[in-house]
Automatic annotation (TrEMBL):
Pfam families given in the database record: DM10_dom
SMART domains xref list: DM10 (SM00676)
GO BP of this protein: cilium-dependent cell motility; mitotic cytokinesis; mitotic spindle organization
Top-rank lineage group of the source organism: Eukaryota
Cell location: Cell projection, Cilium; Cytoplasm, Cytoskeleton
Protein name: EF-hand domain-containing protein
UniProt main location, coarse: other
GO function terms (MF aspect): alpha-tubulin binding; calcium ion binding
């Protein structure tokens, strides 16, 4: 029955009108899952399940079967593979071989073959190979990718592919009926083969073809031995000048200059040591001498001591220099050695050093090592310009700005200190120190501003005392006459004497904020640190046989009436009697530390325990 007999005559035999069974009327898809009486069921009419008769017999007899049928083989690799696959172990690992092949050349009388160099890359991850040819400019040959990356079979049509073991040095390999000669490889490839236990043989050189030899000898010309004489003869015959004998020397030594450092000791009345630079031009054996300028030397700048010319060893001085028949001998590089003297028209100059190029030239060309000579160090002239005295206008830094520069700049301020310390003001009660007895009773309030180190003084007055109170000194920076530096916060200690202009003040007391401020900064106010005060007091125990005898003597001299509490005057008198030189601020903080009741009295029991005594 033919194929056309299977289809009805009414349906044309065209694409889209052909069915596998033209007489089939039901084209619906089979439904496998259904819901019958609220139960999900599956139709298994079309599912063929194979059964094992041994399994059925074991189920009938009630004996459990061995469903595994043998022991399970242990896996070779886990989720962390113990044996790495090649795509993971040799990722980005490529072997590179340098090779070549011989290409025949036809219809060329100069060559009949050509050597073309290529690189073979073998990828260890998947065993693929690709071949490239390095590009050569103006070669006229399409170069670049030679064989795309792929697995190359050993024989066309076979499934036996090349591996890394097949690639050996000094061997031939066939890729698609083209024979390549492997001559060398890179360092990684050689190390890989040694690691795998198959070291490679020694490399061989790349052969040369006739094209390369012809290319190298193309521009090589060998003139006949008498060519130079012929050129000179024809040049003179045609009216040209005589050949320049120094042209070759000029071309080979152009811009090559030997530089030497020389010194001339001028022994005249107003003479001095003069430093020069001697430049020797190798192109024409001429020299020039330049003066080394120094700032503030008091001399007019004169660039050249001698213009560029040949320097004779013994100059011939005649009235007609061009008509003399005597020959002069000029200085050459062999005469210019460090440590020698050069006589330049009656001036004896000493060569003491040269530059690096000159040292290298003498060492390579003449075989002489230039050793610099040592000179006595000339004492530098010191110029002193006295600073004019302060005129009293503004700050001293403003006046110094016009001294140091013609265009004075405003002095820089410590902005960070001004922002961080501006809110801290140290206030002290002080008294005036004067030769007049009545003046010593005057009391002042000194305010020190930590933000900009300024000081302000107010005078206090009592009623009917005849003394006007108020501002005594404007806020300004003051200098310490002892150190000639501005006063800082570390200079303000209790008992210290400060001097503003012609007035001297002794700091007697401070407010509570100042006391706490100094206590919080023991690195600046060391006399306000109670630990350092106690350590200083304990150092006097070295004069006693033991520490207990020191404590007993200290307690007896301080508290003579055994009251248990002493006044500040008794503390100061007792320490003075013992010879313990504590400052007023140290005595003040010692009194403040062991004043337990707030009555400004030192508690002897607390003082005993504070300096290291045992509790009773």
């Amino acid at each position: 029955m033919s194929l056309n007999a299977q289809f009805p005559k009414q349906v044309p035999f065209l694409p889209g009108h052909v069915f596998s069974d033209p007489y089939k009327e039901n084209h619906h898809k089979t439904q496998q899952f259904s819901n019958i009486n609220g139960t999900v069921q599956e139709k298994t009419n079309f599912i063929h399940e194979e059964f094992d008769p041994n399994l059925l017999d074991s189920m009938k007899m009630g004996t459990p079967p061995n469903l595994t049928y043998g022991s399970r083989q242990p896996p070779e690799n886990d989720y962390i593979p113990r044996i790495q696959p090649p795509w993971l172990k040799y990722d980005r690992a490529v072997l590179r071989f340098y090779s070549y092949f011989q290409e025949s050349v036809v219809e060329n009388p100069n060559e009949n073959y050509r050597i073309r160099q290529v690189n073979i890359y073998y990828y260890l991850s998947d065993g693929t190979i690709h071949v490239t040819e390095p590009r050569v400019q103006n070669s006229g040959i399409p170069q670049g990718l030679f064989i795309k990356r792929q697995k190359i079979p050993k024989k066309i049509g076979k499934q036996d592919f090349y591996t890394w073991e097949d690639l050996q040095l000094c061997s031939n390999i066939n890729f698609y009926d083209r024979v390549y000669r492997i001559c060398d490889c890179d360092t990684y490839t050689r190390e890989f083969y040694e690691y795998m236990g198959k070291p490679l043989s020694l490399p061989e050189q790349l052969p040369r073809d006739n094209f390369q030899a012809q290319k190298e000898t193309k521009d090589l010309k060998i003139n006949p031995p008498d060519t130079k004489e012929y050129k000179e003869y024809f040049e003179v015959k045609l009216g040209g000048g005589h050949p320049n004998g120094g042209l070759n020397k000029y071309l080979s030594n152009d811009r090559k200059v030997l530089s030497f450092d020389i010194i001339w000791d001028d022994s005249s009345i107003e003479g001095q040591l003069n430093y020069y630079t001697l430049n020797y031009y190798l192109a024409d054996d001429t020299c020039e001498v330049k003066e080394v300028r120094k700032q503030n030397s008091g001399k007019d700048p004169y660039p050249l001591m001698l213009r560029r010319q040949k320097i004779p060893k013994q100059p011939i001085l005649t009235h007609y220099p061009g008509m003399t028949l005597k020959k002069e001998e000029f200085y050459s590089p062999l005469d210019l050695i460090c440590g020698n003297q050069v006589r330049i028209y009656g001036r004896d100059c000493f060569i003491y050093n040269c530059d690096d190029f000159t040292k290298e030239y003498y060492l390579k060309i003449l075989g002489i090592q230039q050793k610099p000579a040592t000179l006595k160090q000339e004492r530098g002239k010191k110029f002193y310009q006295p600073v004019p005295p302060y005129n009293g206008y503004g700050y001293e830094e403003d006046s110094l700005g016009s001294v140091y520069s013609l265009q004075p700049k405003p002095p820089k301020k410590d902005v960070r200190k001004n922002f961080t310390q501006d809110q801290f003001i140290l206030r002290f009660e002080s008294r005036l120190i004067s030769e007049v007895r009545e003046e010593n009773s005057r009391r002042f309030i000194i305010s020190f501003y930590c933000g900009d180190d300024t000081v302000q003084v107010y005078q206090t007055s009592e009623r009917n005392s005849g003394i006007w109170g108020g501002k005594f000194q404007e806020r300004s920076r003051q200098k310490n006459p002892l150190t000639n530096d501005y006063y800082s916060e570390k200079d303000f200690q209790l008992g210290a004497i400060v001097q503003f202009n012609v007035y001297k003040f002794q700091l007697m007391r401070a407010d509570e904020f100042t006391i706490n401020y100094m206590k919080q900064k023991p690195d600046v106010f060391k006399e306000a640190d109670i630990k350092q005060i106690i350590a200083k007091l304990r150092m006097f125990a070295d004069n006693y046989p033991n520490f207990d005898s020191f404590l007993l003597d200290l307690m007896k001299k301080l508290d003579k009436q055994f009251k248990g509490q002493i006044e500040f005057e008794e503390l100061a008198a007792g320490l003075q009697e013992l010879g313990f030189n504590l400052t007023l601020q140290e005595q003040y903080y010692l009194m403040r530390e062991f004043d337990t009741n707030g009555e400004w009295k030192l508690n002897m029991q607390a003082f005993w325990e504070g300096i290291g005594g045992k509790r009773s």
